[in-house]
């Protein structure tokens, strides 16, 4: 059996493999986002045809892409605030019967032992195919740049200007998207917001926070803010909105 790219609607039994893939791909605190906790399971049941999965020859899941359709007016001003708002927007449109005009990419996770083999390009092409198959001409994505966590103190506005000597984007994930036809629309400074007690953040990160301050942590694109007096830690993740357009004309 060769590699197979399917939707969750076609292979619902693969849902059980998705948590393992995500636990291998994301920092523990990223799985504590309250919006994700509220909607993630429903995403698979309500929007199964927009969840696209890649299995290897042994029928083991090695990559997963997740997206939600939503109504978008085509302007930067009309974009959701970020990842959290996009998934809420998609479910609200579904519940209200609004006709979607765009597909919003939520994440692409690739098994660590499969990275560097061109699967990112394959999964982006699959996302385009999913959108086109549903008659959607636009894709918007709150992109999480893959190397930004190494530079958490650098503002995202500066980071996305970094280039390699050949003039291409410094960040590999942004470079892939731009090479495949995406354009940058704007920064989403509070794309995902995660809060917790100090002890919760210590559990999630394996660090100790003895006093209030701004702390870089592994896997975070910006520092987390710890307020010991309020027993509160807060993380506001910045993302980069990108757009693929004219998908139907290109298909």
Structure at a glance:
With 251 residues, the protein is of the alpha+beta class.
Name the overall outline.
globular
Rg (C-alpha, Å)? 18 Å
- Class in CATH? Alpha Beta
Q: In the CATH scheme, what's the topology name?
A: Aminopeptidase
Low-confidence stretches: none
Q: What is the domain tally?
A: 1
CATH architecture: 3-Layer(aba) Sandwich
Percentage of residues in DSSP E strands: 25-35%
**Average predicted confidence as pLDDT:** 94
Q: DSSP helix count?
A: 8
Major β-sheet annotation: 9 strands, mixed
Indicate the percent of residues in helices: 25-40%
Our measurement of the CA-to-CA distance between the termini, rounded to an integer number of angstroms, reads 27 Å
Defining key terms:
251 residues, alpha+beta, 9-stranded mixed beta sheet, 8 helices, globular
Outline the structure in words.
This protein has 251 residues and is of the alpha+beta class. It has a single domain (4-190, 239-250), classed as Aminopeptidase, CATH 3.40.630.30. It is 29% helix and 26% strand. The protein has helices at 18-25, 34-46, 83-96, 119-133, 156-159, 172-179, 198-205, 247-250; strands at residues 4-7, 52-55, 61-70, 102-110, 139-143, 183-196, 213-215, 224-227, 232-244. Strands 1, 2, 3, 4, 5, 6, 7, 8 and 9 form a 9-stranded mixed sheet that branches. The longest helix is centred in the middle third of the chain and has 15 residues, at 119-133. The chain starts with a strand and ends with a helix. 36% of the residues are buried.
